[in-house]
Amino acid sequence: MKKNLLWAFLLLSAGSFAQTQFSITAPNQQGLLDGRLLVMLSTSADREPRFDITDALNTQLVFGIDAENWNGAQAKVINNANGFGYPKRYMKEVPAGEYYVQVLLHKYETFHRKDGHTVKMPMDRGEGQQWNRAPGNLYSKPIKIKFDPKGTSVIKLSLDQVIPPIEEPKDTKYIKHIKIQSKLLTEFWGRPMYLGAHILLPEGFDEHPNVKYPLAIFHGHFPDDFDGFRTIPPDENLKTDDYNARFKLYGYNKIVQQEAYDFYKIWTGKDFPRVLAIEIQHACPFYDDSYAVNSENIGPYGDAITYELIPEIEKRFRGIGEGWARFTYGGSTGGWEALAVQVKYPDQYNGCYAACPDPIDFRAFTTVNIYEDKNAYWYESQFKKLAKPGHRDYLGQVSATVAEMNMRELALGTKTRSGQQFDIWEAVYSPVGKDGYPKRIWDKETGVIDKEVANYWKENYDLAYILKRDWAKNGEKWKGRIHIYCGDMDNYYLNNAVYLTEEMLKGLSNPSYDGEVDYGDRAEHCWNGDHTQPNAISRLRYHRMFIPKWAEEVKKTAPKGVDLKSWRY
What we know:
By secondary structure, the chain is an alpha+beta fold.
C-alpha cells in the first residue's frame, strides 16, 4: 500500500512539473556552434516572428538561451526552466493558443583580444549588426502550432535555413565607396577588422581637378549606402497605400524618394557648397556602429576613424585634410557621436550639429540619474514604487518602461551582446569586467546601479561633465562649434539631458560657449532644428540643412588665410 502511494505521489509530482518544450537541431551544420538560440512565438501571420520582437506594445514573444560548443545534430531544448523570455519572463506565462513559431541562431565567433581576454561575439557580416538579418545566421521557416505551457508536448524545430550574403553597393557617378583594414582595430580584436564609408562627390568634381574640398561627416546608424540621394524621380509604380505608423502617414515611401530626388537637384544646383559628404560604416561586434570613440570593450574606433579612415578618404578624394575643414552632424546615435568627436578631438573637427543626441549628460540617462538613483528601473519611496518610463509619444503616452526594454535585450543576448541600445551604451562606456565582457552599469534583471561603474562613465563619456571639466583647457577650441537640437517630447526623454547641458553651457565663461541649443515644440525623436517641417520631413534633410549652415559659420571659425572660396564654385 505504501509503495503504491509513493508511486502515485511521484506520478503526480512529475505531472506538476511537466512542460511544453522546444527541441532544436541544426542538422546541416559542420563543426561546433556558438551563439544565442532564440525561439519566437507570434499570433500574427503578417510577418515572420523574427521581425516582430520590439519594444512596442504589439511585440511578440521570444525566449533565448546561450549555445556554446554546440553539436547541431544533438538537440538543444528551450523550456520554462532555461529560456529567458520577453515580454513574458517565463514560458509558463504564455497563454495557451495557436501561434506561429520560429527559431533562429545568432552566431558568435571567438575573438582573442589584445587585452588578453577571449570573448565570443557576433561579428557584423555587412548587415549592420541586425540579429534577425545577419548573413550566415541559421533559422527555420515559421510554422503554426498549438501551444499549451501546461502541456507535455515536445515541439521539434530545425535550423534548416541560412540568411544569404548581402551584395556590396556599387559606385556611381556621384557616390563612391571605400573600405580599409584598420591596423588599430585589427590589433585590438586579433583578427582583420575593417572600416568603410560612402562618399558623395560634389557637383563638378571631375571638372575641377585642382580643387580640394571640406569634409562633411554624417554620423548615424549603419548605412547600407549613401542615404537620401536619388538621381531619378520617384518610382511611378511605387505603392502609396503603405502606412507608416510612426508618422501616421500613407505613402511615406514615395515621400522618402521625392526628398532624395529633391536633394540631388539641390546638391547639383548652383549655390550649394561643394564638399565631400560621407557616411561611415563602423559596425562592431556589439552594435551597428562603434559610437566613434575609443573604448575599453570596443577598441580604438575614435582613433581609427579620425587618424586612419578620414585621412585615407581625403587622400583619395582630394579633401583639404585639415581639422578646420571637417565638421560633423547627425541625429540620435549620430547626434551623440557628432558631439563626442568634437569633444574628444577638438583639433580635428571644426563644428558639430548634434540632433536628438543620445544622453549627453548622465544625470538624465534617459529617465535615470546614474549618479543619484539607486535603481534604474523604479522610482521608489516609503510607500510607492513606480516603473521608470522608457518610450513615449508626443502626448506622453508610455509604451515601454526602462525595465521592459532591458528585458528584451537580456532575452536577445547575455553579457551585453544583444546588439541593442542599452547594451551598446554599456559596451562603449564601461570598463572591461574580469570575464572580458563589459561591467554592468546596473544589474540587468533588478536594475540596481553600480556606482563604481557610474563614476567611470562620468570621467570618460559624460559629455556635459567633460565639457565643463575641461573648458579651461579646450574652451577656445570648442567655442562656437557646439550646436544641439532636440524635440521637447523626444520619445526616449533625450531632451532631459539637453536641458541640463544647456544650463551648463550657458554658465561657462572665458570664453562663453557661443553655440546654439534649440528645441522643437511637441517634437518627437529625430527633430533637428527645422521649425518649418514635421519630423517626417526634416529627418530626411540633414545634409541640405547642415552643410550650408556650416559653410557660413566656418567663416568665423576657420584660421585666417585659409582657402574658403575655391570650393564655392
